[in-house]
C-alpha cells in the first residue's frame, strides 16, 4: 500500500486519526501534514510521522504529497478558509497521482441550512469533479463539544447552550477517527457517502441531568439566545467567526439538524458508538 497522508494533523481530530491509523499501518506508511517544524516535532514526540506543507503553498503541498497514494482530507479549522484550501489540496493531490481520498465533511452537507455546511458541500462537489476515487464521511457534532467545559460546568453549576430541548446525535472524536481509518485503508468504500453520528441522541438538558447524577454535583442547563451564546463563546476565547458558526449549529439543533439515526458510524467501526455517559465517566475519573 502506498503511503497515506492525513491533513490537519496538528488539530485534535487529525492527530486522533493518525493514532488510529498507526495501529493498522506498517511503520513509515502514514504521515500527518503539518505547517511548521514545531508541529512536526510535537507529532514526533507522540511517535507519529509527519510531512511539512501548507495548504496556502502549492509548491510545499507537491513536496509533501510525493509518493502518497491515499489522502485523508481533514478541513482547516477556520471555516472561511476551508473551500479554498481544500481546492488547493485536491489539485495538488491530482497532480501527485493520489488515487483515493477520504474527506471529512459535515452531517447532511448537501441539504443542511447550517452555515458550516456550505464549504463542505463545495468541497464535495470539487471531489466529484476531480476524477479521484473518494469516500465522504459527513460527521455530526462531537461529544467533546459538550465535555470540554466539564470542569467549568462543575465549578459554576451551569452549562450554557442554545440548543434548548433539541436532541443531538453526539459521537466521540475517537469514534469518528476510527471510521476515518476504516475507510482510508479500504478503497472499496470509494463512491460512498456516510452520515456519521452517535447511536443515541441527547439534549443539553439531559446531558446536565446525567452530569449531575454522575458527579454528585448539581449542574443546570442555562439556555441562551443564539446571540448571547455567540457572545459567551467569544468571551471564552473563540474567534468571532467560529463562535457564530457554533451558535448557528446549536440553534439548528433545535430543529433537528444535529440529529441522525442512520447507524452508519457504528456499522463502519463494528461496535456501538461511545455514549455521553461513557465519556463523562472517563473524564470525571481523571
Automatic annotation (TrEMBL):
This protein's source sits in the domain of life called Bacteria
* Residues covered by the NAD(P)-binding domain: 8-149
Q: What's the short name of a Pfam family annotated to this entry?
A: NAD_binding_10
Q: Where is the signal peptide?
A: none
Protein name according to UniProt: NAD(P)H dehydrogenase (Quinone)
Amino acid at each position: 500500500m502506498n503511503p497515506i497522508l492525513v491533513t490537519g494533523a496538528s488539530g485534535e481530530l487529525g492527530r486522533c486519526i493518525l493514532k488510529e491509523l498507526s495501529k493498522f499501518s506498517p511503520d513509515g506508511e502514514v504521515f500527518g501534514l503539518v505547517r511548521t517544524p514545531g508541529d512536526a516535532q510535537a507529532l514526533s514526540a507522540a511517535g507519529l510521522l509527519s510531512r511539512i506543507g501548507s495548504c496556502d503553498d502549492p509548491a510545499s503541498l507537491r513536496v509533501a504529497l510525493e509518493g502518497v497514494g491515499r489522502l485523508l482530507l481533514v478541513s482547516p479549522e477556520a471555516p472561511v478558509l476551508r473551500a479554498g484550501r481544500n481546492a488547493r489540496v485536491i489539485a495538488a493531490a491530482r497532480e501527485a497521482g493520489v488515487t483515493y481520498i477520504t474527506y471529512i465533511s459535515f452531517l447532511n452537507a448537501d441539504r443542511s441550512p447550517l452555515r458550516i455546511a456550505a464549504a463542505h458541500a463545495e468541497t464535495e462537489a470539487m471531489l466529484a469533479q476531480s476524477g479521484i476515487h473518494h469516500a465522504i464521511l459527513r460527521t455530526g457534532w462531537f461529544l467533546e463539544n459538550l465535555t470540554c467545559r466539564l470542569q467549568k460546568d462543575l465549578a459554576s453549576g451551569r452549562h450554557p447552550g442554545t440548543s434548548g430541548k433539541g436532541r443531538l446525535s453526539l459521537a466521540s472524536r475517537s469514534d469518528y477517527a476510527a471510521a476515518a481509518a476504516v475507510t482510508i485503508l479500504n478503497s472499496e468504500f470509494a463512491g460512498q457517502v456516510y452520515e456519521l453520528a452517535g447511536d443515541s441522541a441527547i439534549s443539553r438538558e439531559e446531558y446536565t441531568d446525567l452530569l449531575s447524577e454522575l458527579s454528585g454535583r448539581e449542574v443546570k442547563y442555562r439556555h441562551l439566545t443564539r446571540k448571547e451564546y455567540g457572545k459567551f463563546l467569544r468571551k471564552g476565547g473563540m474567534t468571532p467567526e467560529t463562535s457564530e458558526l457554533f451558535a448557528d449549529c446549536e440553534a439548528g439543533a433545535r430543529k433537528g439538524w444535529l440529529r441522525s439515526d442512520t447507524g452508519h458510524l457504528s456499522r463502519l467501526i463494528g461496535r456501538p458508538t461511545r455514549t455521553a455517559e461513557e465519556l463523562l465517566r472517563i473524564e470525571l475519573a481523571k
